[in-house]
Amino acid sequence: MMWLCAALPAFSQARPSITGPSTLPGAQVGVPYSYTLQASGGQGALQWSATGLLPPGLTLAPSTGNISGIPTTAGNYGFRATVTDSLNRTDNKDFTIRVTSPLAITTTSLPAGTVGVAYSQSLTAAGGTPPYTWIVTAGSLPQGLAL
Q: ω into residue 25 within 30 of 0, thus cis?
């Protein structure tokens, strides 16, 4: 009696696994953004897709996992990325991206001071990512005042 055995394909590679942090680098409205999702394992070419809410203005490239574009709206956005290998094996991971508004100083004027009288006034800003660091970039403050 003779037995014939057909060799089964070896699946030496593990199913794909999405790696990296779940909180992606922040983005800013109006500023080009690019970040590539990473995966290990899997067989053949990997394909990427997303469900949920990518920030408006950003897209996910199916063949590379690159998220790119110019964000248009500030906010916190959550989405689920799925990576699929050529054997139709998948992995999913939830991600968040925070999009901030451009940083802007909102103080438009300061009250006048009087020589010899204590002076204190706060500056305000919006957008960006607090806490803010303030520096004088042009000119100088009156003698005796500090920022």
A: no
Q: For residue 1, name the pLDDT band (cuts at 50, 70, 90).
A: low
Please provide the distance, in angstroms rounded to a whole number, between the alpha carbons at the two ends of the chain: 94
The CB density around residue 90, as the number of other CB atoms within 10 Å, is 16
Q: How many CA atoms lie within 13 A of 24 on its CB side?
A: 27
**Model pTM?**
0.75
Query: Tens digits of per-residue pLDDT, 21-54?
Result: 999 999 999 999 999 999 999 999 999 999 999 9
Q: Is 44 helix (H, G, I), strand (E, B) or coil?
A: coil
| Measured distance CA(32)–CA(94) in Å, rounded | 22
- What 3-state DSSP class applies to 74? coil
CA distance 28 to 32: 8
